[in-house]
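Hypothesis: this fold can be encoded by more than one sequence.
Test: take the C-alpha cells below, design a sequence, compare later.
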C-alpha cells in the first residue's frame, strides 16, 4: 500500500485497519474492514493497493468509484471490486453522499483459496466490469464486523468461515455474471422455474415494489408463477418474500448500527408502522423491543 493513512471527510468512520500488519485467521489475511458515511463531495484520494482485494458495498447515496483511473458510477446496493496492485479512488456525490462498507482481504500463497481468488478471469477483469448490484449480500458486512467485535471464543473462526464463503461469492459473481455473451437459461421444467423465482427474490429483496415485478421480469403470468411456486415450495410467493425480508430485518437489528426507521426504509416498507406491525406479527415482539433486548444481551456478554 503506497498510502496507508488515507483521510476522508466523513460523518462517521468505523474502521478495523490492519493495512500495515494484516490480521491473520489461519490462511486468511484481513487488511481492512469497516463502514464510512461520507460528507458532501468527500473523496478517498487516489492510492495503490498492496497484495489484496477490496470490496466496497454501497449502503446509500451516489458517487463514482475508480479502478486504474476508469470511473464507474455507484449507487445503493452496488458492489465494487478493486484488485491487487491497482489504483483506486472513490468520490462521493455532493447532494447524495455515499455510505458504504469496505472489506480488504487476501490469502496466504499456500492456501487452497489462493488459486481460487487469484484466477486469471478475476485478476484480469476489465475496469469497466467492476460494479454488481446485489441487495442480498447486504447482511454479510454487518455479520463480519460483529464477529470482529465479539469476544466470543468462536468469533474468530466464524469470521474466517464467513469471509471464505464471501470470497467464493465474489469469485462467482465477477467471473460468471459479467460476461458479454451471457444469456438466461432455458426453462425446461417447473423445478427450474421455481429456482428462478427463488433466485430472483433473493437477489432483488429490497428492490421489489410489487410481486408482479417478478412476473414481468421473468416474462410469465403471475398467477401461473404463484401456482408453480406453491406446488413446489408449499407456501405462496408473498409469504416467502415477506419472510425473507423479515429475517433480514431481524439480522440487521441484531448486528447493524442502523435505526429501526432506517432499516424499514432500507427494506422498502411503506412506513415504519407497517414494518413494526408485520415484524411483531411474525416474531411476537416489536422491532424496538427486539433491539433493546439485543443490546441488553450484548452488554451482559
Amino acid at each position: 500500500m503506497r498510502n496507508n493513512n488515507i483521510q476522508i471527510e466523513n460523518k462517521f468512520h468505523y474502521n478495523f485497519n490492519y493495512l500495515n500488519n494484516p490480521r491473520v485467521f489461519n490462511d486468511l489475511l484481513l487488511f481492512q474492514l469497516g463502514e464510512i458515511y461520507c460528507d458532501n463531495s468527500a473523496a478517498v484520494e487516489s492510492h495503490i493497493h498492496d497484495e489484496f482485494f477490496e470490496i466496497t458495498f454501497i449502503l446509500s447515496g451516489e458517487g463514482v468509484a475508480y479502478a486504474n483511473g476508469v470511473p464507474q458510477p455507484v449507487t445503493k446496493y452496488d458492489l465494487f471490486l478493486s484488485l491487487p496492485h491497482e489504483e483506486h479512488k472513490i468520490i462521493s456525490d455532493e447532494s447524495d453522499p455515499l455510505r458504504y462498507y469496505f472489506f480488504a482481504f487476501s490469502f496466504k500463497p499456500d492456501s487452497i483459496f489462493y488459486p481460487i481468488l487469484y484466477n486469471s478471469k478475476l485478476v484480469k477483469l476489465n475496469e469497466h466490469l467492476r460494479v454488481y448490484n446485489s441487495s442480498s449480500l447486504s447482511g454479510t458486512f454487518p455479520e463480519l464486523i460483529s464477529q470482529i467485535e465479539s469476544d466470543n471464543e468462536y468469533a474468530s473462526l466464524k469470521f474466517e468461515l464467513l469471509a471464505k464463503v464471501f470470497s467464493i461469492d465474489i469469485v462467482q459473481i465477477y467471473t460468471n455474471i459479467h460476461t458479454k455473451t451471457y444469456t438466461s437459461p432455458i426453462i425446461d421444467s417447473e423445478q427450474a422455474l421455481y429456482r428462478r423465482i427463488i433466485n430472483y427474490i433473493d437477489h432483488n429483496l429490497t428492490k421489489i415494489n410489487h410481486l408482479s415485478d417478478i412476473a414481468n421480469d421473468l416474462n410469465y403470468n403471475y398467477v401461473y408463477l404463484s401456482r408453480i411456486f406453491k406446488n413446489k415450495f408449499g407456501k405462496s410467493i408473498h409469504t416467502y418474500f415477506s419472510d425473507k425480508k423479515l429475517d433480514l430485518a431481524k439480522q440487521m437489528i441484531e448486528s447493524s448500527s442502523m435505526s429501526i426507521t432506517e432499516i424499514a426504509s432500507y427494506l422498502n416498507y411503506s412506513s415504519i408502522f407497517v414494518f413494526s406491525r408485520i415484524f411483531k406479527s411474525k416474531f411476537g415482539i416489536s422491532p424496538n423491543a427486539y433491539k433493546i433486548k439485543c443490546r441488553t444481551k450484548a452488554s451482559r456478554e
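Residues 1-7, 178-188 have pLDDT under 50 and may be disordered. Residues 10-177 form a domain with the Jelly Rolls fold (CATH 2.60.120.10).
Hypothesis status: open.
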